[in-house]
Amino acid sequence: GNQDRGDLVHDEWTLELFAPGRGKALNLSQKMSEAKVEAANAGTTKYAVVVRRTGYPVDEAYFCMPLALAREVLGL
Fold first, then answer.
1. Alpha-carbon distance 3 to 20, whole Å?
2. Rounded CA separation 62/54 (Å)
3. Which of 17, 29, 8 is nearest to 53 (CA)?
4. Angle at 11 between CA 29 and CA 75, to 5 degrees
5. CA angle 18, 20, 71 (to 5 degrees)
6. In the predicted model, is pLDDT for residue 2 greater than 80?
7. What residues are paired with 63 via a beta bridge?
8. What is the DSSP secondary-structure string of the chain?
């Protein structure tokens, strides 16, 4: 719903978890927009999308965040 707070919320972070499945389209832009809104709903300052790669172990998932946020987190 419009008050969704993300799939995983911890301290400053909200994560949107996504597993599109084999042959399904990945709309990363939409998922990033969702994560941003859900972070605001959860009261966190950082957000990212974790995308499970079909046919790969979870450790091979992608962790996606806006470049500006990555620079902040990495201190660049």
1. 22
2. 11
3. 17
4. 70
5. 45
6. no
7. 50
8. -TT---SEEETTEEEEEE---TT----HHHHHHHHHHHHHHHT-SEEEEEEPPTTS-GGG-EEE--HHHHHHHHT-
Query: Structure tokens of 6?
Result: 């993300």
Inter-CA distances, 12 with 24, 44, 52, 58, 60, Å = 31, 5, 22, 23, 24
What pLDDT digit, counting tens, does each position of 13-62 carry?
Answer: 999 999 988 888 888 999 999 999 999 999 999 999 999 999 999 999 99
Using the predicted structure, report yes or no on whether residue 1 has a pLDDT greater than 80.
no
d(CA 18, CA 72): 24
